[in-house]
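Severity: low
Component: inverse-folding endpoint
Summary: output formatting inconsistent between runs
Steps to reproduce: submit the following structure tokens with default settings.
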């Protein structure tokens, strides 16, 4: 189909995410047909520099309702975007930013703006009769390595394990479908092993579906994960990653990190990571230091020689990423669309990362929905890595299942990132 594709309707509503917390869903009509629906994810482990979700306050849903954001879409944004060409994503996103007018999208709400931005991308792809990943990039062909978070701690869990995520990466798989098989088999073995060691309580799950065993030791968590891997046929195909979420361990007054009951300086914490990397095949660490410690990120990137991912450090913000690039702080961007508020801004951050040799890790949030769009974003960006939780709940598995469909659609042109996950192109 050719020609202009005009937005003729827009409607937002309040729905709930995987935690039972309200979020916003947006429908978009193009040429009088419903063409796009997008759900906005939400984080619990939130960086200070993220764009602002608009919540209602009050007693309803413990103050977490999003009816104000819904009204902003239905009563303010809809009047301005109806009549626009849905394929002009950047023009639409620029209008959304202008309508809000605040520094951090707090007036209308980043969740309101993002819902419209995402719905527009999906509606445009549908109107042009293209898969979302192809609409984003005609050269989309890389299937990402799943960064499978199998053990949870930190703010996402009910245990006392300080680090937030203990992750396996099946880099030795030949295809994405085999990678998914490997991770599912390891997860199954891990759950059985945890029951044997700690009882049934150990397979309760955290916000992202990973097990929450009664473990306090970082090494014990890595040991039990490694033991589960060794009990499968896949040990040679798997490496490990950590998400530390260190800002939540940092005391800005004492300038110390509290880890396993000890108060550590930045230098001491880096020494701990060096020791872990020497003992386990860890190839990636996310947010190993506080979100304001660009100098520390520079040191750890130089000293460890592995992938160092900035999440709270960068919050998918081009300006913060530019500072990191100039300083050599981290070497990978965690890419979360809701951290910045519009799809165009998120794409700009990814492009800046790639131009400067930084890896891109497409990521979910702890408050996910059944919307599978980040699977298409991972392929559309040829990112090489996707982080979307353990394969045990539908808001996680829907992303993996979408990647299986994309792999099938791409056929022989599909390339699994595998051991080249940092620079898959």
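Observed output (run 2 of 3):
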């Amino acid at each position: 189909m050719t020609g202009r594709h005009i937005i003729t309707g827009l409607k937002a509503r309040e729905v709930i995410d995987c935690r039972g917390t309200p979020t916003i869903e947006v429908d978009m009509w193009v040429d009088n047909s419903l063409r796009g629906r997008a759900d906005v994810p939400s984080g619990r482990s939130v960086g200070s520099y993220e764009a602002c979700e608009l919540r209602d306050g009050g007693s309803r849903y413990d103050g977490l309702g999003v009816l104000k954001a819904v009204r902003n879409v239905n009563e303010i944004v809809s009047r301005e975007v109806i009549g626009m060409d849905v394929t002009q994503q950047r023009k639409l996103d620029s209008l959304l930013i202008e309508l809000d007018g605040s520094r951090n999208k707090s007036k209308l709400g980043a969740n309101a703006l993002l819902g419209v931005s995402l719905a527009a991308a999906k509606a445009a792809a549908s109107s042009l009769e293209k898969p979302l990943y192809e609409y984003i990039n005609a050269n989309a062909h890389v299937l990402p390595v799943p960064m499978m978070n199998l053990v949870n701690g930190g703010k996402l869990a009910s245990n006392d394990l300080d680090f937030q995520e203990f992750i396996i990466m099946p880099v030795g798989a030949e295809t994405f479908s085999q990678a998914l098989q490997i991770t599912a088999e390891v997860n199954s073995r891990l759950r059985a092993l945890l029951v044997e060691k700690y009882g049934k309580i150990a397979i309760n799950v955290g916000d992202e579906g990973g097990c929450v065993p009664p473990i306090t030791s970082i090494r014990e968590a890595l040991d039990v994960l490694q033991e589960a891997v060794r009990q499968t046929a896949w040990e040679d195909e798997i490496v490990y990653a950590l998400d530390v979420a260190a800002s939540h361990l940092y005391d800005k007054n004492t300038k110390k990190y509290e880890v396993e009951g000890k108060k550590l300086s930045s230098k001491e914490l880096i020494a701990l990571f060096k020791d872990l990397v020497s003992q386990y095949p860890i190839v990636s660490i996310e947010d190993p230091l506080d979100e304001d410690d660009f100098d520390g990120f520079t040191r750890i990137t130089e000293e460890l020689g592995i992938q160092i991912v900035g999440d709270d450090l960068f919050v998918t913000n081009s300006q913060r990423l530019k500072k990191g690039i100039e300083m050599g702080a981290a070497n990978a961007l965690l890419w979360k669309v809701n951290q910045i508020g519009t799809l165009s801004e998120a794409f700009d951050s990814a492009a800046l990362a790639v131009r400067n040799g930084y890896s891109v890790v497409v990521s979910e949030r702890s408050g996910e929905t059944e919307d599978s769009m980040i699977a298409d974003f991972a392929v559309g960006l040829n990112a090489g890595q996707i982080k979307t939780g353990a394969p045990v709940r539908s808001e996680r598995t829907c992303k993996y299942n979408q990647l299986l469909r994309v792999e099938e659609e791409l056929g022989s042109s599909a390339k699994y990132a595998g051991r080249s996950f940092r620079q898959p192109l």
